[in-house]
Amino acid sequence: MTGLAILRHLLAILVLPFxxxxxxxxxxxxxxxxxxxxxxxxxxxxxxxLVGAVIFVIGLSLFAWCVTLFARxxxxxxxxxxxxxxxxAVGPYRHVRNPMITGVALMLAGEAAFxxxxxxxxxxxxxVVFNHLYFLAxxxxxxxxxxxxxxPKYRANVPRWIPSLDAYSEALGRRALLDxxxxxxxxxxxxxxxxxxxxxxxxxxIRLVRAGELPLYGTLTWIRRGGxxxxxxxxDPPPQQPLIDAALNxxxxxxxxxxxxxxxxGTIVICPRGQGGQLSPRTFTDPLPKGFAIAAMNFLIxxxxxxxxLVSTETRVKSGxxxxxxxxxxxxxxxxxxxxxxxxxxxxxxxxxxxxxxxxQNG
Length: 363
Known about the structure:
CATH class of the largest domain: Alpha Beta
Structural class: alpha+beta
Distance between the termini: 37 Å
Order of helices and strands: HHHHHHHEHHHEEHEEH
Largest sheet: 5 strands, antiparallel
CATH architecture of the largest domain: 2-Layer Sandwich
Mean pLDDT: 85
Number of domains: 2
CATH topology of the largest domain: Alpha-D-Glucose-1,6-Bisphosphate, Chain A, domain 4
Number of strands: 5
Strand order of the largest sheet: 1-5-4-3-2
Strand content: 5-15%
Helix content: 40-55%
């Protein structure tokens, strides 16, 4: 960064976070009766100080990470008078919309624990409430105005305060063939990874990855099917069959194949007994009957340059009525952690295959 850019960031930090984390707490701590003696004696005090120091360092690290992303990615600062020129949707911003505020809040929580101060805990509460109201009334409308193409999609997929396991990627802001089959959904997860390979090689890797390349895939799918035997398919694929082929041979259908950009597959996940019917692309575009729930999954490749691309996979589930939605919600809560792990490992297996293919071409 240039000297002027460094001065811009220092000014923003001194005027805003420095006042919140240093100036105001110092003033509050100068007031009489501001400390709470730890009830656990000296050992309890030392423990609280240790915990407070750890929390403070975590918050400071998160805050510094966010400031760096604002400078490098957003080309701006944290100050409202010198905002970012681009929407920052990388790093911690892929999981939660306001990690910088979380970092500052963690620093305040660390100070309150370290000094065992009730007044600092109260200041933390004031800070959190004020920022929540500010973001609702000012910050979010401002972002929607500055980034009308990107922010609405980002806001719809990333929570405001509670981090999500799903990692948002800017590929979500682009039109995907998946949208043509399921524009609205009840449940969804999204994961992405950057791969140093051109789209044709990555697309071929997507087609060829097998279950054996994913750690714990067999164990997790065995748990998911309750230890019972299962017809060959995505939950019990033949060892030498690519996972995409196993899915298509075991209940999924191909909805779209736009090589080397996107592949979309879909299936029925809940249906009334004896009413499975014939699965076709129209199942995903026509109104969904009561008692049914369908799922669609894609792999989407977004080129970053001639030698790199972003690969994302998204799964969407839609139900035909509230009763079916509640039924699937219970199942979704149970399988969600394992499902996320499988998709992350799937993307990493794709990256390994693509990387090996590039090295083979260059070697």
